[in-house]
Write a structure and sequence with these properties.
alpha+beta; Transferase(Phosphotransferase), domain 1; five-stranded antiparallel sheet; about 25% helix; globular
């Protein structure tokens, strides 16, 4: 099942032999630029260890493509939870974008949410929004100051922020 597409990549949902769900990013190995992007992403992702960053589980290089295997994040992306089922505004291919169909139940704790009470829209209580903002800030702080070589993400946006089933941002 396709989860998302980029300019030079496609992300699929898959399962490992023992049943663990994964997100598999496939890059075109015929393109030299993709090979550079793959190597860069592999080097960076393999060095990261933070609860707010999706962990890289493995990689594969073969004749069919270049593959990066990440832990599957089951809660959908922040854009969906804030704005509901809206059409994608595009993807520039720089970062992993995983789109899922997860829905959250509307809660009475969403006073002030512009989506509260609108049928077909997901919404997040303000306490969860704060938790997500804090987690994203901690992830950025880790990328900038918590590792030997600073990593600048360059594309932080709601559609690139994934949420776990417990609404922890990744």
């Amino acid at each position: 099942r396709v989860l998302g597409r980029g300019a030079h990549s496609c992300v699929y949902r898959g399962r490992l032999r023992l049943g663990r769900a994964v997100a598999i990013k496939r890059l075109n190995n015929a393109d030299k630029e993709c090979s550079k992007d793959f190597c860069r992403e592999l080097m960076i992702s393999s060095s990261l260890d933070n609860r707010f960053v999706v962990p890289l589980l493995g990689y594969c290089v073969d004749a069919e493509g270049l593959f990066l295997v990440y832990k599957f994040v089951s809660g959908g992306n922040l854009e969906h939870h804030l704005h509901g089922n809206i059409p994608s505004r595009g993807f520039d291919g720089h970062d992993l974008q995983v789109l899922t169909q997860a829905q959250t139940k509307e809660s009475s704790g969403t006073v002030g949410s512009k989506n509260a009470g609108r049928k077909g829209r997901a919404c997040l209580p303000w306490s969860v929004r704060f938790k997500v903002a804090l987690g994203v800030a901690q992830a950025v702080a880790y990328l900038h100051y918590g590792i030997e070589r600073c990593v600048v993400h360059r594309d932080i946006k709601p559609s690139n922020i994934l949420l776990s089933s417990k609404k922890t941002p990744k």
